[in-house]
UniProtKB/TrEMBL annotation:
Protein name from the UniProt record: GTPase Der
UniProt gene name: der
Function, as annotated: GTPase that plays an essential role in the late steps of ribosome biogenesis.
Organism: Alteriqipengyuania lutimaris
Gene3D superfamilies with a match to the protein in the record: 3.30.300.20, P-loop containing nucleotide triphosphate hydrolases (3.40.50.300)
Pfam families referenced in this protein's UniProt entry, alphabetically: KH_dom-like, MMR_HSR1
Length: 465
């Protein structure tokens, strides 16, 4: 296991900017307003050959624990329990604040090495703040600029004596592992990338916390608490087989109607959620049983299908649903009508509060990924293709025969097929749907999105008169 380094500090000192600089990607949302980060975010870092996991945390605020800022602080406090080192970030240009002193007092009482980082120290603008920070009693401060990448060498020198040995041990352990070829079977053995999406306040973070058995993500009655898309690696034990399966759970920000999204930060959050859908293998659209299915839910579902993700529906808050049987059948019918391109999507009832339905949900997600990753041999595919053409030959518009010659599977995840023939530009859309539905029904692809491309042969002698 890689050593873990936690970034802590008051709001708006540049913690997320430093996190992005260390991981080398813009993973965490960054904005000028304070309090953007709310949940812990993890990222793997390689700094001058030293590897570790860095954790971005919410800004520390001195608020009542029952308030949202207070609950955010509790999440930050929990983060140092398994930390190997802490990067305590202050704003060198702003100088010390009473909140910085409070955080320093708390860190001195914690049994973890602390490195004092004076951010925004580019030029001479931060000199006064750096000198002032000696009063915190945490040793020599490191003057850096996370935005401009200055001071990373000093950061390495400070971290190496603390985590260097553990980093080397993690590298040695990784070298002993046998790498598997990334064929279809290897991909199925890897962690299931499962994204939970939906409208605000559907219970996405609460559901993930129930799965994990801990308050890993910030939750509460306020809508729109989650801003960043947070990925969490987890192991689930299948109660049916007893097997342990690896899952990467991805929590996302709630997606409201586009016309209601006006603030810059919410636009960034929604864009981040869309990227999470791209990253996922299976997407769970979480509905609120007390509100039913709305048009916005169908738009989110369409987004996942357009991106080629395997999609399933989970109806949350089932423990308080009114007339559950009628509700379930109503949602089932509305989905088949509103998402005619993929009928028969898996629909399951769950309760994030009680844990009902979580194991069946995860079992169904693994089955869905298997169908999404399935490959059919060319011979079996063309046997089905010949039977499909015999049962329902393509039309002959204007007396001109459309010839479909053969089909091949071009890829998986999502399944992609290429049909070769002549005059394919005249093939009706209804016949393409016939082929797609047949592939799903007869070849075991179920409700996963299937792509079919029509390709005319370039052979000039292939056309039929």
């Amino acid at each position: 296991m890689l050593p873990r380094v936690i970034i802590i500090g008051r709001p708006n000192v540049g913690k997320s900017t430093l996190f992005n600089r260390l991981v080398g990607k813009r993973l965490a949302l960054v904005d000028d307003q304070p309090g953007v980060t709310r949940d812990r975010r993890f990222g793997d870092v390689t700094l001058a050959g030293m590897r570790f996991t860095v954790v971005d945390t919410a800004g520390w605020e001195d608020e009542d624990p029952s308030t949202l800022p207070g609950r955010m602080r509790i999440q930050t406090e929990v983060s140092i329990e398994d930390a190997d080192a802490v990067l305590f970030v202050i704003d060198a240009r702003a100088g010390l604040t009473p909140l910085d002193t409070e955080i320093a007092n708390w860190l001195r009482a914690a049994d973890v090495p602390v490195i004092l980082v004076a951010n925004k120290a580019e030029g001479r603008s931060g000199d006064a703040g750096i000198f002032e920070s000696y009063a915190l009693g945490l040793g020599d401060p490191l003057g850096i600029s996370a935005e401009h990448g200055e001071g990373t060498a000093d950061l390495f020198e400070a971290l190496w004596p603390i985590i260097g040995e553990k980093s080397d041990a993690a590298d040695a352990a990784d070298a002993e592992e046998i790498e598997e070829d990334e064929d279809d079977d290897g991909l199925l053995r890897g962690p299931l990338k499962l994204a939970i999406v939906g409208r605000p306040n559907a219970g996405k973070s609460t559901l993930i916390n129930r799965m994990l058995g801990e308050d890993r993500l910030l939750t509460g009655p306020e809508a729109g608490i989650t801003r960043d898309s947070i990925a969490i690696d987890w192991e689930w034990t299948d109660p049916q087989s007893g097997d342990t399966r690896e899952i990467r759970l991805i929590d996302t920000a709630g997606m409201r109607k586009k016309r209601n999204v006006v603030e810059k930060l919410e636009k960034l959050s929604v864009a981040d959620a869309r990227r999470a859908v791209d990253f996922a293998e299976v997407v769970v659209l979480l509905l609120d049983a007390t509100q039913g299915l709305e048009h916005q839910d169908l738009k989110i579902a369409s987004l996942a299908l357009e991106e080629g993700r395997a999609l399933m529906i989970a109806i949350n808050k089932w423990d308080v649903a009114q007339e559950p049987s009628k509700l379930f059948n109503g949602i089932r019918g509305a989905l088949d009508e509103g998402l005619a391109q993929v009928k028969g999507l898996p629909v399951l009832a769950v309760s994030a509060k009680t844990g009902k339905g979580i194991d069946p949900l995860l079992s169904a997600a693994f089955e869905l990924r298997e169908a999404w990753s399935k490959r059919v041999s060319t011979s079996a595919l063309n046997r089905w293709f010949d039977d499909a053409l015999e049962a329902n030959p393509p039309p002959a518009p204007g007396g001109k025969r459309i010839k479909l010659r053969y089909i091949t599977q071009a890829g998986t995840r999502p399944p992609r097929f290429v049909v070769f023939g002549t005059r394919l530009d005249m093939l009706p859309t209804s016949y393409e749907r016939y082929l797609v539905n047949g592939i799903r029904r007869e070849l075991g692809f179920g409700a996963v999105p299937v792509r079919v491309v029509l390709k005319t042969s370039k052979n000039p002698y292939a056309s039929e008169q």
